[in-house]
C-alpha cells in the first residue's frame, strides 16, 4: 500500500507515521514564515496548506484503492486489520481539518471497501470483518459530510453504516451509527433525537467496551439536555464518567480512543450551557479548553461558542465578546459549517448588548466573517 503520508502529502507526525523526506521540503515555507512572526507558526495558513495538500493528494491514492478493489480478488484475512489501521491514521486528519477538506478522502475509502466487499471473495469470518470495517468507514465519511453541511449525504452514510454493522453483528458500531443519527436529528426534532440516542445505548448493550459506553452515554446526555431534562442529563454524564474510569484488560477500540476526560468535560459544559446552568458550565469548559491547542481550530472554536453562550447567560457580556473574538479568529479558514453556525447564534444573543464597545466590535467583525 502507498503510505498515507506520501499519498496525501501530509506531515507524517500528524497522522502517526514516520516523517518522510518530502516533509522537510514541505515545511520550508513555515520555517520562513516563523521567522517573520517571531517564531510563531500561523495555524490558519498551516491548515489551508494541509487542506490543499489533502485534496491534491487524493488523486495519488485513488489508483491504489482501485487496485485493492479488483473484481474477483480474494480478500486475505489480514485485509480488515490493514484497512482499520489505515482508517485510524486517516481519522487523525479530523483533528486538524474540517469535513469540507476530508469528506472526499473518507468517502473514497468507504467506496473502495464497499466495492471490495461486493466483488471480492472471502471466507465467512473475513466477510463479517470487512462489513465491520465498511460500517466504520461509513461513519467516518458520514461525520465529515455532516461537518461539511452535507446533511443528506451524512444521513445516507449513517444508515449504510447501521446496515453494515447490523449484518456484521457488530453491536458497538451499530449503536454508534444510531448515536450519529441521533446527533444529526437533534436539531430538527429533539424528541426523535432522544429516542434514537436511547436506542443507540440499548443496541450497544451493557457489555460493550468501556469507550463505547462512555461515548454513547455522553451523546445520550446531550440528547437529554436538548430535551430540557437536567436530571437525566446528569445521570448519563455520570454513567459515561464511570465507564471511562473502569479498568479493562481489553484494548480500547481505536474509533473511541478520542473519548477521554477532556472530551467528557466539553460535553458536560455544553449540556449545562443548553440547560442554562452557567455556573456549572463555565468552569468545566474553561478547564477543558485549556487542553486544546489552537491547531485544533474547528473543535476549539466550536467549544468556545458554548463558553461564550454561558458567559452571556451569566451576564458577563464583555467576557463573552472576548471569547467570541477568539472563536472567530480560530474558525477562519476552517472547512466546517458548524463553528460559523454556532457563532451566528451566539452573536445574535449578543445583539441586545451592542451598546457595549467590546460587543460592538465583535458585531462588526462577525458581519464580515460570518456572512
Automatic annotation (TrEMBL):
<protein>
    <submittedName>
        <fullName>XRE family transcriptional regulator</fullName>
    </submittedName>
</protein>
<dbReference type="InterPro" id="IPR011990">
    <property type="entry name" value="TPR-like_helical_dom_sf"/>
</dbReference>
